[in-house]
Write a structure and sequence with these properties.
Number of strands of chain A: 3
Number of strands of chain B: 17
CATH architecture of the largest domain in chain B: 3-Layer(aba) Sandwich
Oligomer: heterodimer
Strand content of chain B: 15-25%
CATH architecture of chain A: Alpha-Beta Complex
Number of helices of chain A: 6
Shape of chain B: globular
Number of domains of chain B: 2
Radius of gyration of chain A: 14 Å
Number of helices of chain B: 14
Largest interface: A-B, 22 and 22 residues
Strand content of chain A: 15-25%
Helix content of chain B: 25-40%
Structural class of chain B: alpha/beta
Strand order of the largest sheet of chain A: 1-2-3
Strand order of the largest sheet of chain B: 4-10-9-8-7-5-6
CATH topology of the largest domain in chain B: Aspartate Aminotransferase, domain 2
Largest sheet of chain B: 7 strands, mixed
């Protein structure tokens, strides 16, 4: 049960987040919070030749939201913009590898929402992911 | 149309306090939900500040109402409509007596504390607040006693000022006195913080506000369920609270107001039941309290709230408060034994049964998940609808355990055991 929730690799991403920080001159940037529990997240992307060449994120929040952000940052680095645009909730759930209860979906998908928003704000994708659609 | 006269509650015999004090352990049998399990463990419910559980007395009063008396109120001339009306108005008298209102017509049924505050912000606020007027609030308000005043200020051009919170979790009363010197029109504050548990010195604050001519609204959502609140002793102008935090059903709350204020206020919601005479182009309003109760009210909920008041009266609010003080003292003592745990808010002499805390670098949401799944312990995690207060302490969230009449030491022990498990899971 909770041991499922808090597997070692999730705690590892929480304690040692990959790609943590920010970029001085990001090509794409967005931030948001999860009003339910106060999780905060900001994502910076560097985009060259339609590829995500660098990712940085900063945030604070629960292990689920911050581990998901860390995993997502690893997942998208080096990918094409087109590939990243296609990323959805299932990809995040697969990476987390744990059952997410309804109350925690906002935590799990916060980084995905911010990622898509950053691409949308940079004009790299149409705003597709409904912010309120992750219940 | 309501015809029954408002009942002068001062003539009604005061409810007797049961001399034989029942222990919380005995009382738990009255609350069916406390017998259930979650994740294969007995439910340990430590979120009563958010919403309390309900005793059989309340559940059965509502079932009986639907089985025996349900009809629309204030309209029918037939037997069961009259019975429904009588039961609803009897509940109003019980509530009025519970808070020592002078007359039952000063008790207006709303949906909840939030709606009660909105009623005052729109009805009294729009009629009395103008550009440049000062409204004094505090940094420890629930969003429901903050946002309605922000909107009122936007509508009218009024100014908002805030009494700061000290590191200890108390209101800075020196600043409060300074703000009063600017002659606010309205002072609105919480009687008891839903995050820190702080019980504010309401009587003194109201007296000082009145001395400069301010009207005072007290958010009593957390105090009325847990301690004896006397609106006449407080001399408060408006008092707002919710049924569901005091053993009653959801969907009904109370606005108490001083009679002259309520009578001068225009309606908030409009429609049926709140009218005296309706023409195509204009109408006149019903008497208090129905002027503010448009449409078919929450009748079963009023009956349930009445039963909750009866239940609390049988326990005696002094005993309720004393029990929570004891449980809170025990909780504070036990929580302090956990390494890395930080407790927010004042010492037990200045707080009610609410304890907010953080544990090491474990996010409160993770704590709540672990407590739920490992121990069946229900606590609240988050900003508790008090984001400005969270920012005051530079916190994104806290974990919060809160207690009520049915909370026993074993509940606290389960909480502490769960927190130790969380430390293990997080390798701390």
């Amino acid at each position: 049960m909770s041991m499922d929730y808090y597997r070692e690799y999730i705690l590892d991403h929480y304690r040692n987040p990959r790609n943590y920080g920010k970029l001085d001159h990001p090509d794409a940037h967005a931030e948001d919070n999860n009003p339910l529990c106060g999780d905060q997240l900001a994502i910076d992307l560097q985009v060259e030749d339609d590829h995500i060449t660098e990712v940085r994120f900063q945030g604070r929040g629960c292990a689920i939201s911050q581990a998901a952000a860390s995993m997502l940052s690893e997942m998208i680095e080096g990918k094409t913009v087109e590939e990243v645009v296609q990323l959805g909730k299932d990809d995040v759930l697969d990476a987390l590898g744990i059952p997410i209860s309804p109350a925690r979906t906002k935590c799990a998908f916060l980084s995905l929402r911010v990622l898509h928003r950053s691409l949308a704000l940079a004009g790299l994708e149409k705003p597709t992911m409904d912010d309120e659609d992750d219940q | 149309m309501p015809t029954s006269e408002s009942v002068p509650v001062t003539t009604v015999e005061h409810t007797k306090t049961n001399s034989a004090i029942r222990t919380a352990a005995e009382m738990r049998k009255d609350f069916p939900i406390l017998a259930r399990q979650v994740h294969g463990k007995p439910l340990v419910y430590l979120d009563s500040t958010s919403s309390s559980q309900k005793p059989y007395a309340v559940i059965e009063a509502m079932s009986t109402y639907y089985e025996m008396y349900h009809a629309n109120v204030h309209r029918g001339v037939y037997e069961i409509s009259e019975e429904a009306t009588a039961r609803m108005e009897k509940a109003r008298v019980k509530v009025a007596r519970f808070i020592n209102a002078h007359r039952s017509k000063q008790v207006i049924f709303t949906r909840n504390t939030t709606e009660s505050i909105n009623l005052v912000a729109y009805s009294w606020g729009n009629a009395n607040i103008t550009a440049g007027d000062l409204i004094v609030l505090t940094e420890m308000e629930h969003h429901s006693n903050l946002v309605p005043w922000q909107l009122l200020a936007q509508r009218t051009g009024a100014r908002l000022e805030f009494v700061p919170v000290t590191d200890e979790g108390l209101l800075n009363l020196d600043v409060y006195e300074q703000l009063l010197q600017q002659q606010p029109k309205l002072v609105a504050f919480t009687h008891m913080s839903n995050v820190l548990g702080t019980i504010n010195p309401a009587q003194e604050m109201i007296m000082h506000a009145h001395a400069v001519g301010a009207i005072v609204l007290l958010d009593a959502a957390q105090s009325v369920p847990h301690m004896h609140v006397d609106v006449q002793a407080l001399d408060v102008d408006f008092l707002c609270f919710s049924s569901h935090k005091m053993l009653g059903p959801t969907g009904i709350g109370v606005l108490y107001g001083k009679r002259d204020l309520l009578e001068a206020m225009p309606p908030f919601m409009s429609g049926g039941d709140m009218i005296r005479k309706v023409g195509l182009r204009e109408s006149t309003w019903n008497d208090l309290p129905w002027k503010f109760e448009a449409g078919t009210p929450a009748i079963a909920e009023a009956v349930g709230l009445g039963a909750a008041v009866d239940y609390l009266n049988t326990l005696g609010m002094e005993n309720v408060f004393k029990h929570e003080q004891e449980i809170t003292a025990y909780a504070l003592e036990q929580l302090q034994t956990i390494p890395g745990l930080t407790i927010y808010g004042p010492d037990v002499t200045k707080r009610g049964g609410v304890v907010s805390f953080t544990l090491a670098d474990i996010h409160p949401h993770d704590l709540a998940s672990i407590l739920d799944q490992e121990m069946g312990v229900a606590i609240r995690a988050g900003h508790h609808c008090a984001q400005p207060l969270m920012e005051r302490y530079d916190l994104a969230a806290t974990a919060r355990a809160s207690f009520y009449v049915y909370t026993v030491q074993e509940d606290i022990d389960a909480l502490v055991q769960g927190l130790r498990k969380a430390l293990q899971i997080f390798n701390l």
